[in-house]
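Quick question, first post here. What does this chain look like in 3D?
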Amino acid sequence: MAEERSCVLVLNGPNLNLLGKREPEVYGKLTLADINRLVAEKAASLGLSVDFEQTNHEGVLIDRIQQAVGHYSCIILNAAAYTHYSIAIRDAIAAVAVPVIEVHLSNIYKREEFRHHSVISAVTYGQISGFGADSYLLALEGAARMIHGGK
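> Answer (accepted):
Ran it through. Tokens below.
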């Protein structure tokens, strides 16, 4: 197994490829590429490397979570709609020894009732929501502290 490189995997779920076009009043005007660029810049300043993946497919998210063991020190996950009902993603997170930080651009607790419940939060290291693109940056800072022994 290759040495763990203090690398963070940023996983994005369904419809996040439409950021910048999809409901900008809720999700902001930045595209996913814009957010990835900001995260990559912040990661470099924190001494971390980062990989990105976006998929609209639940099974791909599960595969990537399972494959993270031995390759990543942390996962930052925006499971999007899967947050609210995917027991399969929840079980994948619980099955691996890689901490997962759950992120959301919007405050899911100020939105529709069905968005108030996260089935994955009970098995994640923590959750950050409501800060737009900064949710990812805050999660990255938390990951850096965790990786470098700050918490």
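The radius of gyration is 14 Å.
The chain has one domain: 7-147.
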